[in-house]
Structure formats: C-alpha cells, structure tokens
Amino acid sequence: xxxxxxxxxxxxxxxSYCDGYGNAGASGLGYISVLxxxxxxxxxxxDVVLENIVSYDRAESLGTYVGQINMIxxxxxxxxxxxxxxxxxxxxxxxxxxxxKPLFIKQRSDGVKIxxxxxxxxxxxxxxxxxxxxxxxxxILPGAHVTCAVKNHTIKGPTxxxxxxxxxxxxxxxxxxxxxxxxxxxxxxxxxxxxxxxYMETLMQNIAxxxxxCGDDSNVKYKEIFVGYRTEWVPERxxxxxxxxxxxxxxxxxxxPEKQKANQLLSITIxxxxxxxxxxx
Length: 281
Prior knowledge:
Distance between the termini: 35 Å
Structural class: alpha+beta
Shape: globular
Strand content: 25-35%
Number of domains: 1
Radius of gyration: 19 Å
Low-confidence stretches: none
CATH architecture: 3-Layer(bba) Sandwich
Largest sheet: 7 strands, mixed
CATH superfamily: Pyruvoyl-Dependent Histidine Decarboxylase, subunit B
Order of helices and strands: HEEEHEEEHEEHEEEHEEH
Helix content: 10-25%
CATH topology: Pyruvoyl-Dependent Histidine Decarboxylase, Chain B
C-alpha cells in the first residue's frame, strides 16, 4: 500500500479518541504505530499480584498516556499497511530535516553500514499525540482493545529496572515490514549511574545486532535503526515495572487539522501539526 492510502485508511470512528487497529468503524485498512517507554514504582505494601498490577498501571499512565486500555500483545512488526507516527506522518523536526545524528553504526551481512539513531524523537512525537495523564490530547479510547508490540518486567527492589525499544526501517517497504524489538529486565548488583549507563549502552548495541540477525533470517534489509531505553532505581520495599510498547492504532477524527485530508499529515512536522491543532501558538 502507498503511504497516502495507509494514512487515509487509518482514521477511527471516534472524534476525540484514537482506537485500536482492527476494531469496527475505521476508514480503511491502515494503522499507525506509536512508541512509548516508561517505568513505574510503587510501595510494596500489598500482595505481589496487586503490587504488580499497580506498578504496571503506573507505567501505563506516566509519561505518554496509554492508560485504561486492554493491551493485546503482538509479535512485533509495522507492516505494509502501517506507518509510524513521528516518522512517516507528523514527522519530528529532526527526522524531517535530517538533522538527527547516529548514535553508532551497524554493518549488515552484505557490508552495508546502517545508522542507528535515538528513539527520542519518536517517543516525543507519541507523547505529543496522546498527551499525558494531566493534559490529554487524543488518547486511546478507555477500555479499547489495542494490539501492541509490548513487553514488561516487574521486580521487587532494591535493583534497577529497565525497558528498551528498537525500530528498524525496511529498505523495501513495498515488500517488507518494519521491525520492532522490545526488551525489559532488571540489573542486579549495579548501583551507580555510570554502571547503569554502560550496561544500557551495551544493550543498545546488542539490540541493533539482533535486528541485523533477524533481517538475515527473513532476507530483509534494514536501512536504519532507532533504539532507546528508560531505567529507574527501585528502592527496598518497593516494586518497579518497566514497560515498552508500541500500540497499533487508528487516529481520532479530530486529530486531523480542519479541512485537511489525513494524508496531508505526511507533509507536515509534528510542530506544524500542533500549530494547526491549536496546541501551540
């Protein structure tokens, strides 16, 4: 599918809420992937099941708001009828003007070098679409069933909890999917910020390497990769949850600037979208 058709077919039935892909009432067959990373920590003063529930719910609600939804875990591709918020449409400025700089380089098995960028622009764009718990914009419909590329890890402190996400963009999007890698865990016996940083930077390298190997397995060539993480210290007598997810959604009707077609989002930046929506002056 062409990007114009994907985005025009990715408008949901609700005025002010995004909805999960595949639910009734969408404008077509397209969907949009939105990235989120977050940790949440709560006191360990209940039973383990309740503490896990509350820490997961807190991770959903903090930062980019994806609270009150029924997450359905999916293995993890943005396909031929999918687009990425902040990359394909409502582009983040650093992506639109090619000012984003690689964190490092990976080499494909055919010798081609792949730039590996930070996911921060894509995470920022997602937050600017859904909003936060305090200032919601176009959140996902409460109670919606939403397929997500998702993993989480919950653990009792003292330890560090972390979550990570990567997105690899296929060189030939007419034939191959873009790939998500989600990971989450904890870091035992590491207490200093410096040690945590070294651990997570090594993990970013390994995640990028895993993408290259996955591409080899399916004979898919990726042209660029985005990676990022969040980590938090979980004190003693606390429970920490790390959540990485990319919901597959259709957009709220009101997320379209007045008198514009959905595919016009392909030609504007996230800041221009905010201006047209009246979020910034």
